Amino acid sequence: MLCQRLSPRFARQTLQILIHLPASDTRRKRYSMMKRITAPLLPALILSACAAPQGEFPSLLRRPYETKAPITAPVPPENAVLAVLPADLRAKAEALAARHRAAQIAYRDLLPQSDNAARAASGTAVGSEAWVSAHLQVSRLDKARADSKAALAEIDRMITAQMNADIQGNSPDIAALLMPYQNRLATDTAAQDAEIERLSALIGV
Fold first, then answer.
1. For the chain, what is the largest distance between any 2 Cα atoms, rounded to a whole number of angstroms?
2. Is the separation of the CB atoms in 174 and 126 below 8 Å?
3. Contacts of 70 (CB under 8 A, 6+ apart)
4. Coil, strand, or helix at residue 151?
5. At 190, is the secondary structure helix, strand, or coil?
6. How many C-beta neighbours within 10 Å does residue 32 have?
7. If you count Cβ atoms within 10 Å of the first and of the last residue's Cβ in the chain, which end, N or C, has fewer?
8. Measuring CA to CA, which residue among 106, 89, 103, 92 is closest to residue 185?
């Protein structure tokens, strides 16, 4: 194989010499002379054309990126399941959160009055009118926030039951989706406990 490609000018000159036959005696003589001169040089000319810089002509070889597999989007594993809180659990959790909010409002409404009663009873004798009144006021305060504690206990039970269901059913971690409800209720009830303990300490046993 001589060369995969030659320059257009070289190919055109070669064809003119080899296939363009002369029409007269003068041209025939000239053609014979040119043939004798160029015949020995043809191999060298062909080799020099093959040695020409390859950058002058577009390569016909396949580019590296053409031999690689096309890029495709990753396929998620067949067992990949996104955890979504079921509608029934969401409804229960929202109901418990609403129950807690109502109790929190009632608790906050009674807190200033309870605080005043505790301050008034501070330092008084056990069993005095102020002491008894303050204890009654704190008891009402504790009763007002009872639904907050009940809602927290119920959400705790829901999470425990759902954790067991997640493990046994090899399902997504749905129990974790209930944690935000639990955290909010636990934070508020802890603050309530701290306030009631402070008032009780202020009143005295």
1. 150
2. no
3. none
4. helix
5. helix
6. 11
7. N
8. 103
**Encoding tokens for residue 178?**
């209930």
Per-residue pLDDT of the chain (205 residues; tens, 9 = 90+): 444 444 455 445 554 554 444 445 555 555 555 555 555 555 555 555 555 455 454 555 555 544 555 444 455 454 444 568 889 999 999 999 999 999 999 999 999 999 999 999 999 999 999 999 999 999 999 999 999 999 999 999 999 999 988 888 766 788 899 999 999 999 999 999 999 999 999 998 7
How many angstroms separate the CA atoms of 185 and 149, rounded? 8
**pTM for the predicted model, two decimal places:** 0.58
Q: Report CA-CA distances (Å) from 135 to 95, 107, 118, 130.
A: 32, 15, 8, 9
Tell me the two tokens of residue 26: 């003068």
Tokens 């990949």, located at residue: 80
Instruction: List helix spans (H) across 20-145.
Output: 25-38, 42-50, 64-67, 87-121, 129-144
CA-to-CA dists, residue 75 to 69, 71, 72, 79, 144, angstroms:
16, 12, 9, 11, 54
Query: Which one, of 157, 167, 163, lies nearest residue 175 by Cα?
Result: 163
- Whole-angstrom CA distances from 47 to 4, 7, 16 are 11, 12, 19
